[in-house]
Each structure stands twice: as C-alpha cells, then as structure tokens.
Design a protein that fits this description.
This protein has helices spanning 2-7, 17-37, 50-64, 78-91, 108-117, 138-147, 219-234, 236-257, 286-295, 315-319, 339-353; strands at residues 44-47, 69-72, 94-97, 121-124, 151-155, 174-178, 189-193, 262-264, 275-279, 328-332. By secondary structure, the protein is α/β, with parallel strands linked by helices. A seven-stranded mixed sheet has the order 1-7-6-5-4-2-3, with helices on both faces. It has a three-stranded antiparallel sheet with strand order 8-9-10, covered by helices on one side. Helix 6 links the parallel strand 4 and strand 5. The longest helix has 22 residues, at 236-257. Bound molecules: pyridoxal-5'-phosphate. Pyridoxal-5'-phosphate is lined by residues 49-51, 77, 79, 126, 130, 155, 157-158, 178, 189, 305-306.
C-alpha cells in the first residue's frame, strides 16, 4: 500500500502512463481476489465496504429483478435489516422474517414455508453471525432457494478470509466482503455478483467498476484488500487451528472463573472459530463492565463491533431469547492473540463479576 501511495498515484481511469499503471494494479488485485475465492474476475466489484455492497445489491434486486418479497432474519446486521426496511418503505416490497431458535440458528422449515408462499423472493441470510459466530448451513439454504426459484444473497463479511471460500462450490448468487475483517485496510470491500445475475449500480456517475460503482477507485485500499486476503490464505489452516484453540481455551477458562457464565449461540457447535459471545453474572452493569475491561487494556464489544457503544442491548440476543439481566460480551480472537491473554481476560472478568 505504501508503494502504491508513493509511486502509483495515477488515476486508474486516465489513459496516460501513470493512470494505466494504476489500472493494472486494480486489475491484478481483482484477479488475485477472484482466484482466491474461486470466482471469475468479472464477478468481483470493489466498493467501500460491506455496508455499501449490501445497499447496492439489495436495492438493485428491488429495482431491477421484479422481486416481490424479501426473506431475512432478525439476526442480520443492520446493513441488511435497515436496507430491507427502507426498501419496504420506499418500494412497498414485503419483508418476512424467518424464525430463529434459542441457539440462534434459522429455522429452515419455516424458510421453506415462506418460500413456498412467496414466489419471486430474495433470501438474505448471513453466512456467520457477527455477534454469536453462528454459521448458516449454506448448502441446505441454497437448495431451498433453488427449489423455489429464489435468489440467495448471503452477507459473508464475517467469513470471507476466515475460511477457504471457494465460490465455485459455495452456492450463493450474491455476497459481500469487507477488508478490515481479514486484517486489510478499513473502508474497502467487495461485492460478488455471480455471472448469471445482472444488476445495476446504486452509485451512478463516471462508470468505474464496469458501470457497477461509480467514483474514482480507492486504489491503495483495493491493493491492500487483495494483499491481506492473499496473506490470510497463505496461513489459513494454521490460523484456524490456533484461533479455534484460543476459543476453546477461553470457554474453559471462563467456566472456571465465572461458574454461572453462559455462551450465547452454538458456541461448541456450528459456529465460527473467531467469535465467542458470553453472558455474564446477572446484575453486572454493562457500561461499567466495558469501561473496566477497557481500563485493563482489553478490547472487546458488548454486541456488534461497529455499534458496541449503543445503549439498549443486542437485538440479536433479544431475538434468541437471551436473559436481558445478564450483560453480554462479544469476544473476537485473531491469529495474533495468545493463550496468556485469554487467561488475563478470564481473571479480569472474574474480578469484575464476583
Ligand atoms: N455485515 C456484517 C456481518 C458485519 O459484521 C459488518 C461490519 O462489521 C458489515 C456487514 C458492514 O461492513 P462495513 O463496516 O465494511 O461496511
């Protein structure tokens, strides 16, 4: 990225030499990303992040595909839920919510019922939940969508770069990713639009990204995104093993430190290795909890990372029926974390809760 800022300052749309050099970097990044994800370069569009990708794709479905119905779940990120609510308000397209169980998994039987009674639907279900880490059974969901002629959009912001994701065998029609979730720069992401889907832009203008996203490209961000995705793929299996062992270690340490701790979601089952959501002792003040953890140098969130300062509790945990009297914490692990940091977290939480 540094090299890119210092030496490749041309505008990628310009035809002069500096511009052409910048254009080559973007297309190299696109080829790198598409090869890592099992896509063709024509299926990858760069954008400013997950939120922009979601808005672009869902509004385009509503405008251009004669969609009659959206089906989603109360566990989705606000980028999806707020966009679907706006589409309902402005375009009158109905929205149904799939039921979720106490573990926080979507009820696929209910999804099938909704699909059967709502032809021409778009299903919007995330691959991994950003608060609990729960994983969607993507193949079963895609099979239901296919059987009922529905389009399947999956928010893959939490999983892109966390697994080897081969879209040639990952049956979703539309997806989004965000570079900062795999140690890339903030403010850059991508949209995946499979070849058989034709959609237009949300942001119109000079026609960059093959008319799908106007505006001068975030060249350094795009180069950084591709490099970050490449780096995580180079050590993916070791990282998954290490991060999974940190999560297991954390669950064991917390069970010893705080005997009444609860794990929200399917923490020991169908769940992402990098996220753990815990409910702590009833009555502990959530704001005080976060403040004391912060003072101890521990960076965790009370809910989703981008809204953890929000008062009022987590809509995801509420939808799963979690006890609101227990303050909840979302703990994220990365390859850079160490077991002694987990012990320090458990010890600090014990001192706060007991
Ligand atoms: N979707 C999920 C599941 C997320 O976790 C996030 C961000 O945390 C987003 C969408 C939004 O992505 P961005 O912050 O890149 O706009």
């Amino acid at each position: 990225m540094q090299e890119c800022m210092l030496e490749s300052y041309g505008n990628p749309t310009a035809v002069h030499e500096a511009g052409r050099r910048a254009r080559v970097l973007i297309e190299q990044a696109r080829r790198k990303v598409s090869a890592l994800l099992g896509l063709s370069p024509g299926e990858v569009y760069f954008a400013s992040g997950g939120t922009e990708g979601v808005n672009t794709l869902l509004w385009a479905c509503a405008r251009e595909l004669q969609v009659k119905h959206f089906i989603s779940s109360p566990l989705e990120h606000p980028a999806v839920l707020k966009t679907l609510e706006s589409i309902r308000t402005w375009m009158g397209i109905d929205l149904s919510m799939v039921r979720v169980d106490a573990l926080g998994h979507v009820d696929l039987q209910h999804l099938e019922e909704l699909l059967a009674s709502n032809p021409k639907s778009v299903v919007c279900l995330m691959h991994a939940n950003n608060e609990t880490g729960n994983l969607l059974p993507v193949n079963d969901t895609a099979a239901l969508c296919k059987a009922h002629g529905a389009l399947f959009f999956s928010d893959t912001v939490q999983t892109m770069g966390k697994f080897r994701m081969d879209f040639s065998r990952f049956p979703v029609d539309l997806a989004v990713g965000s570079a900062h979730k795999f140690h890339g720069p903030k403010g850059v992401g991508l949209m995946v639009i499979r070849d058989h889907v034709r959609l237009g832009p949300l942001i119109t203008g000079a026609g960059q990204e093959r008319l799908m996203r106007a505006g001068t490209e975030n060249l350094c961000g795009i180069v950084g995104l591709a490099r970050a995705l490449e780096k995580v793929h180079q050590q993916m299996e070791e990282d998954i093993r290490h991060i999974r062992s940190l999560k297991d270690h954390c669950m064991r340490a917390l069970e010893v430190a705080i005997p009444d701790v609860l794990f929200n979601g399917d923490a020991r089952g169908r769940s992402l290795h990098s996220i753990l959501n815990v409910s702590l002792t009833p009555g502990v003040d959530p704001q005080m909890l976060l403040a004391r953890l912060d003072m101890a140098g521990i960076c965790v969130s009370s809910g989703r990372a981008c809204g953890s300062g929000t008062i009022g509790g987590s809509a995801v945990l509420k939808a799963m029926g979690a006890d609101p009297a227990r303050p909840a914490l979302r703990i994220s692990f990365s390859a850079a974390n160490r077991p002694d940091e987990i012990d320090y977290l458990a010890e600090t939480l014990k001192n706060i809760c007991l």
